[in-house]
Amino acid sequence: MSVRLAVTSDLHLGAANSPGLPWLVGTARRHAEDGARALVIAGDLVHRDVEVGGVVAPLVDALSAIAERLPVLFIYGNHDAAIGLADAMPPIDGAVAVDSVTPVEVRLPGVPLLFHCASVASDPDRRGIAEAFPVAPRPNGRVGVFHTSLHGGFHPVPCLPASVDQLASRNYEAWILGHIHHARVVTEQPPIFWPGQGDMRDLRVRPLPAASVTGSPGIHQTSTFRTSGRGRNVTSQR
Ligand SMILES: [Mn+2]
User: Fold this and answer.
1) Residue 238 has pLDDT above 80, yes or no
2) Mean of the per-residue pLDDT values for the chain?
C-alpha cells in the first residue's frame, strides 16, 4: 500500500507567470479528494521582486485553507531567501515550514513518511550540502525535498549544486526537487524529479516500516512545529 503525495514547486507569487494561489488551493483540493495524504512544495513560493509584507497574508490564508484537509510541507527556495520570507512567516496550523538550511528530518501528522529536507540559505546559494543528507538504511518511507539546480546543466545560476549520484546514494524512495520550472524527471528509479511550475503531480511511495511509525519515542505529533529563527531545526528525533 503506497502513500500518495501531491507535489509541486516554484509558485513564484508576484511573477507574471505565477500560477497563483487560487490554482494552488484548487489543485491541492482535487488531489486531497483523490487520496493525497500531504502537499509538498519544493521551494520558491514567492518571486524575489515582491514586497514580503504584501505576500505573507494571502500566502498564509491559502496554505491554511489547504492544511485544513491536507497537511502541507514546504521548503524555502532562493527567491524566498532573497526577501526573507522565512522570518516573516507565522506558524500555520497543519503546515510545516522548513527553516533549517541544513538537512533535517520532518514528519507530518498521520503521514507514515520521513521527509529529509533543507531550505536555501541565500540567493544564490552555492553550498554543496547533498552529502549532509543522511543515508537511509532502507528507502521505504524516506522522501528528499530539495531546491537545487543539480549539476548546473539546467539553470545558469547554481543553487545548492548536487549530483544525481549524490542524491541517489542517500537511498530514499524519491527526491522532490524545486528551482527548475519545467517538469523534468531526472531518474525514474528512484524518482528524482522537478514537478515544475504550475504543475502538481502525484507521487506514490512506500510507507515507513510499521515499527518506525508506531514504535519510536519522540516522534513529532503536533500539527504545527515550525520554529522561529533561521537555522534552528524542525527535526523530529527518532
Ligand atoms: Mn529557485
Assistant:
1) no
2) 90
pLDDT at 157: 86
User: How far apart, in whole angstroms, are the C-alpha atoms of residue 71 and residue 223?
Assistant: 8
Q: Measured in angstroms, how far is the CA atom of residue 42 from the centroid of ligand 1?
A: 9
Choose between 95 and 217: higher pLDDT.
Answer: 95
**Top CATH class, 3-214:** alpha beta
Return the pLDDT at 156: 83
CA of 77 to the centre of ligand 1 (A): 5
Ligand 1: centre distance to CA 44 (Å) = 5
Average pLDDT over every residue of 200-217: 80
Q: Which residues surround ligand 1, an ion (CB under 5 A)?
A: 44, 77-78, 179
Domain residue extents for the chain: 3-214
Q: What is the pLDDT of residue 213?
A: 60
Expressed in angstroms and rounded, the spacing between residue 215 Cα and the centre of ligand 1 is: 37
